Amino acid sequence: MPHRIRLRHPWTQQPHSESGADSDAKKQITFTRRFNRPTGLTANDSVELEVNAQQGTVDSIRLNATTLTSLDSTKQVPAKTADNLNPSETVNQSIRVELSKHLEDHNELEVTLYMINGEPQLGEVILWIKSD
């Protein structure tokens, strides 16, 4: 059975705003959190990161300055396709990324969300540990 570790507070937030060509304002926020490598991991364990956007769209996920995923590479938007996604809508998006190869003893996770005419909000972020 997988083991779940919730990455709750403290998250720091770095807002970024830019103007769109059609007068819509794109609001982008990078959420950053540090965490240590889970103890007791074996060579048979895999670690996945699950990121949930409560409001907005996941633009990118970085761990220790390495980009793990970006909007262009994931296209993982439930109940919509990337072609018909309207970034101004509230989207409850969930993305899972394999972390096992990228984990260090001390880690810094950055999740960037964006939204048109709204405030992006990060939902639950979870580390899943699975033993084979």
Overview of the structural elements:
It is a single chain. The chain is mainly beta and 132 residues long. Helix content is 3%, strand content 57%. The chain has one helix spanning 71-74; strands spanning 3-6, 12-19, 25-36, 45-55, 57-63, 66-70, 93-98, 106-116, 121-131. Strands 2-3-8-5-6 form a 5-stranded antiparallel beta sheet. Strands 1-9-4-7 form a 4-stranded antiparallel beta sheet, with no helix packed on it. Strand 5 (57-63) and strand 6 form a beta hairpin. The longest helix has 4 residues, at 71-74. It is elongated, with a radius of gyration of 15 Å.
Secondary-structure map with pairings?
Layout: E1 3-6, E2 12-19, E3 25-36, E4 45-55, E5 57-63, E6 66-70, H1 71-74, E7 93-98, E8 106-116, E9 121-131
Region (Disordered): 1-28
